[in-house]
Amino acid sequence: MSSYIARRFLLGIVVIILVSIASFLIMRLLPGDPLSLYLYQTNISSLTEEEHKALEAKFGLDKPLPEQYFDWIGGVLHGDMGYSWANNLPVSRIIEQRLPVTLYIGIIALIIAGLLGTVLGVICAIRRGTWMDVVISSIANLGITIPTFWLGILLIYIFGLEMGLLPIYGYVSPFTSVWGSIRTIIMPVFCLMLPPLAGLTRQTRSAVLDVARQDYIRTAWSKGLTEKVIVSRHILKNAFIPIVTMLGMQLGTIIGGTVLIETVFSIPGIGRSLTNGVFAKDFMLVQSVALISAVMVVLANISVDIAYGWLDPRIRLGD
C-alpha cells in the first residue's frame, strides 16, 4: 500500500510542476503590459527610462523567463508568492484572507451535495420505476442543465429583491455572526451544490443499480436478509468507487466552481480574485491561485486513489 501511495504522490508532483509552468507561460502570452496598469493605478503619469527599468527590476520583469519562473517557484517554497500589483498587497496576504471564504462555502456545498446526492441516488435505485424515482431523476436532470449564474440571478430576484428574505450580496464571517453568515451563504451554497448534487444522484443511482444486478446480491435476498442490511453492507460499499470518484472531482474543483458564484453574489473569495487577476494580468496572483488549485486537485485525486484501495483491495494489489 505504501508503494501504491508513493507512486500517486510522484505523479501528483509531476502534474503540479506542469501546471505551474503552463500558468506561468500562459499569463505572459496574454497581450498588454501589466506594468502600465500598475503605473496607472499609482497615478504616475510619466517616468524616465531609469525609473521604468527600476520598476521592472522591482517586479522581476527584467529577467529572462526561465529565471523569473525559478525565482517564483523558489519564493513559493519559502512562503513568498510574490506581490500583486493589481491589489497592492502580497499574494500570500490575499490568499490568506480570501481562500478561507471560498473553502467555507465550497466545503459546505460539497458536504450537503455528497450526503443528499448519495441518499437520493440510493432511493431512486431501490425504488426504481416508482413515482419517487421519476420525480427525483427528473429534478436531477434539470439540475445538471441549469446554468449556475442564471440560477443565482433568479434567486437574488425572488428571495432578495421581491421577498426580502435574504441578502443579495456580500459575505459575513461565522466568527462575526453565525446567523448573518448562514443568511449570506444560503443562496451561494444552493447554487454551488446543485450541479454536483444532481450529478451525484444520477451516478449513485446508476452504480447501485449495476451492483444490485450481481449474483451475490440475489443470494443475499434469497437468504432472507433485510433491505437495510443488503443496501448498507453489500450494495453501498461496492457501489462507492464511482461515487468517490465524483466526490473527489468536485473537491478538487472547489476554487474553479466558485468563480461565477462569487461574482454573482459579490463574495470576496479567491475565485473572484482569480477573475479580477486575469483581467488585470496580475501574474503573481493568477499563477499562485492556479498552483493552489492544482495542489487541491492532486490531493483530491490521491485521496480518491487511497479510497479505491480501501474499498477494493484488488485495485491496490493489481497495481
Overview of this protein structure:
This protein is mainly alpha-helical and 319 residues long. It has one domain (92-318): MetI-like (MetI-like fold). The chain is built from 14 helices and 2 strands, in the order ααααββαααααααααα. Strands 1-2 form a two-stranded antiparallel sheet. Helix 6 (131-145) packs across helix 8 (178-212), helix 11 crosses helix 12 and helix 12 (270-280) packs across helix 13.
Short description:
By secondary structure, the chain is mainly alpha-helical. The chain is 79% helix and 1% strand. Helix 6 packs across helix 8.
Notable traits:
319 residues; mainly alpha; MetI-like fold; two-stranded antiparallel ribbon; globular
Coarse structural class? mainly alpha
Distance N to C terminus:
10 Å
State the helical fraction.
Answer: over 70%
Q: What's the CATH architecture name?
A: Orthogonal Bundle
Determine the CATH superfamily: MetI-like
- How many separate domains? 1
Tell me the fraction of residues in β-strands, as a range.
under 5%
Chain-averaged pLDDT: 81
Largest sheet: 2 strands, antiparallel
Query: Going across the major beta sheet, what is the strand order?
Result: 1-2
| CATH C-level class | Mainly Alpha
